[in-house]
């Protein structure tokens, strides 16, 4: 009897253990599935500047491999048609206007009449690295920061205040050029002159951080924001690559640009090699994109090597047509994403915060009004449900239409005060009344699924135009109510 009872109790105990194991397993598996996340952001890379997006000469084998091994995004948008607001939008998941970052941020030298010396991403902004840190991630930023006017100064928040535990960066461009930059700062300490090219240096810093992180905390997931300066001016490229492109380039400046993009591709390849060597490549989600469209050749002195291409798109950087902010996009995650996909679903850099937080099981404050949505359904081959349109408002646009909206296949453009509103690089107490009270007018409508170059305005022909116009007005009015106004500089 004793043996029989012991046998029954043993079986019951075994069943309990198995049930407990089944109950615990999903949570453990969910934690293990949290990916490492890497965002690779280029600077002024045009929609048509990669081999895998149709460039006839530039060779980008590493990015070709990323695209072939994942999803190539043909309807990928940045948060703005210029660098600083685009970066702030990416990091916050919100229109940069809400953060008060309306244009590129110059380094503050003295008080400016339009308060641009004050512009920065404020400490209270909720960012990707802050949320992922709270969820247990290690975080690193390497490359171009450009989210404040007073870089490496206690007067304004720095990358560490945005949630980056390790950072290595510059305020704006690599100086004096991409070659041998001398303006990098690491965790608040000036590094001094460096030897090499900026993209390779930024990728090396990121790679060394990954090696240390994986060796010391192998079970801790990480978030890396690798923001290249390339191919923004002042362009400088290795001689051997420039020589490679001279036979197909119009001149040496164009050969420099072609070489610059390939050099950036090699930096990506170096990072991929380290991810493989450290054994984390399989469960690492990589997002590759650009901050805005390509610079216009010779738009300013020193832009003589700006040979970027918008592909079939209309406009360039600083435009609110698609050439300004429709950019190359690639998603790659070997453990999750099926290879060899091309998607025409609309994706925005504003979507990265909610997407990463869902994958990382990070809690987003319920009070935070996001302008992006999670694109995790796309990773499973499903449709992304976008609850509101994408809206851009750039008060310093080179084209007359300062406001743009993308909703489904539709792209709508509008002027402000019939084009009479003066251009502005900032919204501050001295001009906020005229800017924020301006009204949308002279609407244009394009079906960009059928007319990618926005060449035929169908606003007077399309029955949906009225509904889209009302939608755009409503979204714009909501945005300006939440747009930050800087006080005038003392």
Number of strands: 15
Contiguous uncertain segments of 5+ residues: 1-31
Helix-strand topology string: HEHEHHHEEEEHEHHEHEEEHHEEEHEH
* Fraction in helix: 25-40%
Shape: globular
Query: What is the overall number of helices?
Result: 13
Overall average residue pLDDT: 94
Radius of gyration: 24 Å
Percent of residues in β-strands: 15-25%
Main sheet overview: 11 strands, mixed
Name the assembly state.
single chain
Report the CATH topology name of the largest domain.
Answer: Alkaline Phosphatase, subunit A
Q: Compute the separation of the termini in Å.
A: 92 Å
CATH class of the largest domain: Alpha Beta
Number of domains: 2
Query: From the 3D coordinates, which CATH architecture of the largest domain would you assign?
Result: 3-Layer(aba) Sandwich
Query: What structural class results from the helix and strand content?
Result: alpha/beta
**In CATH, what is the homologous superfamily of the largest domain?**
Alkaline Phosphatase, subunit A
């Amino acid at each position: 009897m004793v043996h029989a009872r012991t046998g029954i109790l043993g079986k019951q105990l075994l069943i309990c253990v198995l049930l407990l194991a089944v109950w615990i397993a999903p949570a453990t598996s969910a934690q293990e599935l949290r990916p490492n996340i890497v965002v690779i952001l280029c600077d002024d890379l045009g929609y048509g500047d990669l081999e895998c997006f149709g460039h006839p000469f530039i060779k980008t084998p590493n990015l070709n491999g990323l695209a072939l091994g994942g999803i190539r995004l043909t309807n990928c948008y940045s948060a703005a048609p210029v660098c600083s607001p685009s970066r702030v939008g990416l990091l916050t998941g919100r229109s940069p206007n809400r953060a008060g970052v309306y244009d590129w941020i110059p380094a503050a030298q003295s008080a400016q009449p339009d308060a641009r010396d004050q512009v920065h991403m404020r400490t209270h902004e909720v960012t990707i690295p802050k949320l992922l840190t709270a969820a247990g991630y290690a975080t690193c930023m390497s490359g171009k920061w450009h989210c404040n006017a007073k870089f490496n100064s206690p007067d304004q928040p720095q990358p560490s205040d945005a949630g980056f535990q390790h950072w290595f960066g510059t305020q704006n461009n690599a100086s004096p050029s991409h070659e041998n930059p001398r303006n990098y700062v690491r965790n608040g300490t000036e590094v001094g002159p460096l030897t090499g090219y900026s993209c390779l240096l930024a990728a090396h810093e990121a790679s060394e951080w990954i090696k240390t992180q994986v060796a010391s905390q192998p079970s801790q997931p990480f978030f890396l924001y690798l923001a290249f300066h390339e191919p923004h001016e002042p362009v400088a490229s290795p001689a051997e690559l420039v020589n490679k492109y001279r036979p197909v380039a119009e001149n040496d400046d164009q050969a420099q640009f072609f070489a610059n993009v390939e050099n950036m591709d090699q930096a990506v390849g170096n990072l991929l090699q380290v991810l493989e060597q450290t054994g984390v490549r399989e469960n690492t989600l990589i997002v590759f994109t650009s901050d805005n469209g390509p610079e216009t050749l010779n738009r300013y002195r020193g832009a003589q090597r700006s040979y970027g291409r918008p592909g079939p798109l209309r406009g360039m950087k600083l435009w609110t047509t698609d050439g300004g902010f429709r950019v190359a996009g690639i998603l790659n995650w070997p453990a999750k994403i099926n290879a060899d996909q091309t998607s025409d679903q609309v994706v925005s850099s504003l979507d990265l915060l909610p997407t990463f937080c869902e994958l990382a099981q990070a809690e987003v404050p319920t009070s935070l009004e996001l302008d992006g949505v999670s694109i995790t359904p796309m990773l499973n081959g499903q449709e992304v449900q976008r609850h509101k349109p994408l809206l851009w408002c750039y008060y310093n646009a080179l084209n007359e239409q300062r406001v743009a909206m993308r909703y489904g296949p539709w792209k709508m453009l509008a002027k402000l005060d019939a084009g009479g509103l003066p251009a502005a690089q900032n919204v501050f107490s001295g001009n906020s009344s005229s800017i924020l009270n301006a009204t949308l007018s002279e609407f244009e409508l394009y079906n960009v699924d059928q007319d990618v170059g926005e060449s035929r305005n169908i606003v007077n022909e399309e029955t949906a135009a009225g509904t889209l116009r009302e939608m755009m007005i409503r979204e714009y009015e909501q945005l300006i109510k939440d747009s930050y106004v800087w006080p005038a500089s003392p």
